[in-house]
Design a protein that fits this description.
about 475 residues, alpha/beta, Rossmann fold, seven-stranded mixed sheet, six-stranded antiparallel sheet, 17 strands
Length: about 475
């Protein structure tokens, strides 16, 4: 065929477009069975109705489910499916069109997921379904699905609604949010937030802490009383303080060497203030401060515990540290209402590292309490506490107290534990003062230096540097050694 016999490209294109138009006009449009059920329930074609949507953090799934049960307990659940279900989210637009990203949508099973909410309780949550209900005499439909920035890592819950009655869906969403606060599974519990390794979904872990009574906490005279006054005392006087226009939001910093009782004091507070929502800010949850504070604000009175804050908030002048997390926490604290009963408990072994951040954000932490190494009286009381059940004469106690100068409470607890272990291995009990002396000899030997450090005994060979091994390596290499004051 010669070139002159080829059809004109413009004419061919116009003819093809006309062909497609005619074929579209004569083609029979098939409505999906799920879309037909939606139209039947609403009593009108949903294509002309506006949709209203809301998004919720994945951690709120059990709260959303309990709210749906409370507000729409008689809703009809319609399951749907498509090829490669789970790849991409399916919302109202896809249901109405009858077509998802991976193919046509048809009836299928309702998808559920079990979510543990502590104490062995499990809430069965709808993961994907169409909810058909009549609320306030208005028919409406909701689509619940999981979605996020990446289809393979959904991190949000999406709830989209449509109704022929104007404002019906918006009113329902307001009721659902109120019901979520009322039925919140986090209220009065101890929880922590954790982000998955891909930075997508946020999980909630429920915790229980050992019961710690006031007699279990041995601190220098007046220290525990000051801590109680600033924590329990303010909560007990909340009504009177609010009436006087005094703020209830407060922050407490517990600082001192490792093993001196900062964590034990915190556990005592959690026990003494039982019934408050408590959020532990640790591990992967450090990047979830805003979300954690949002939960606590909704469920006040609440307590936030941030242990070993120096590990993420070293002074900015140090080469190996960053204050980003601490500054974020302090900034978020600034946005909280002062009349809310919110307590922040921070602990650190290195107050010198975080002092610049606190000085730059004054007023957030309004009480700093030192938890020092126990003095002689403290060590005597600790031996009495942990050595209950042992027969130790007063003279032996005096010698043990004298020889254990400079050790922490954790050291003394371990001393007693190993004495019990020694006696048990020799098939006898209770341990004797001789067992305690033998264990103390072992722990005080040079070869036990690392053990003593792990148990919180102070030392004089770190020169104030938080990474002694790193310091020695830098010194051996002839390199400068950064300290808290080195720019």
């Amino acid at each position: 065929m010669v070139m002159s016999e080829l059809p004109d490209p413009g004419s061919f294109g116009a003819a093809f477009v006309e062909f497609m138009r005619v074929m579209s006009l004569v083609a029979e449009e098939h409505e999906s069975e799920v879309a037909a059920r939606l139209r039947e329930h609403l009593g009108t074609d949903p294509k002309g109705l506006p949709t209203t949507g809301a998004e919720f953090p994945l951690a709120e799934h059990p709260n959303l489910q309990l709210a749906l049960d409370a507000v729409l307990g008689d809703a009809e659940l319609v399951g749907f499916t498509t090829r490669h279900m789970g790849f991409g989210s399916i919302g109202l637009a896809e249901i109405v069109a009858g077509q998802g990203m991976a193919g046509p949508i048809s009836f299928g099973p309702v998808r559920y997921v079990d979510v543990e909410v502590g104490d062995g309780r499990v809430v069965q949550c709808v993961e994907s379904a169409l909810l058909l209900a009549v609320h306030e005499e208005a028919p409406l439909a909701l689509v619940l699905s999981r979605g996020g920035d990446h289809p393979m890592r959904p991190s949000l819950l999406r709830l989209e609604g449509v109704s022929p009655a104007p404002g019906a869906v918006s009113g329902l969403l307001r009721e659902l949010r109120a019901a979520m606060r009322e039925h919140n599974v986090f209220r009065g519990r101890i929880i922590s937030l954790h982000q998955d390794e891909h930075g997508g979904g946020v999980g909630v872990q429920f915790h229980t802490v050992p019961t710690v009574t006031r007699t279990d906490v041995i601190l220098p005279e007046g220290t525990l009383e000051r801590l109680e006054r600033h924590t329990l005392g303010i909560t007990q006087s909340a009504r009177r303080l609010r009436a006087a226009g005094r703020h209830l939001r407060r922050g407490v910093l517990l600082h001192g060497p490792p093993g001196t009782g900062k964590t034990l004091s915190t556990m005592y507070l959690l026990h003494a203030m039982a019934g408050r929502t408590t959020i532990l800010l640790t591990g992967r949850g450090l990047g979830l401060i805003e979300q954690a504070l949002g939960i606590g604000r909704d469920l006040a009175p609440a307590t936030f515990v941030f242990e070993d804050i120096d590990l993420v908030a070293a002074e900015r002048t140090m080469e190996f540290g960053s204050q980003g997390v601490l500054f974020e926490l302090l900034n978020q604290m600034e946005g909280l209402a002062e009349d809310e009963d919110l307590l922040f408990v921070l602990t650190t072994n290195r107050p010198d590292l975080i002092e610049p951040a606190l000085a730059a954000r004054p007023g957030r932490v309004d009480l700093a309490l030192e938890i020092p190494l126990p003095d002689a009286d403290g060590r005597r009381r600790l031996l009495g506490l942990y050595g209950a059940g042992m027969e130790i004469d007063a003279g032996s106690v005096d010698r043990l107290v004298e020889r254990s100068d400079g050790v922490s409470g954790a050291f003394i607890k371990e001393l007693v534990r190993q004495a019990w272990l020694l006696a048990a291995l020799e098939d006898r009990e209770p341990p004797t003062a001789q067992d305690l002396r033998h264990v103390l000899d072992d722990l005080l030997e040079e070869r036990s230096t690392l053990t003593r450090r792990l148990l919180g005994q102070g030392g004089d060979d770190t020169d104030g540097h938080p990474f002694p091994a790193m310091r020695h390596a830098l010194h051996a290499a002839g390199l400068p050694i950064p300290t808290a004051g080195t720019p």
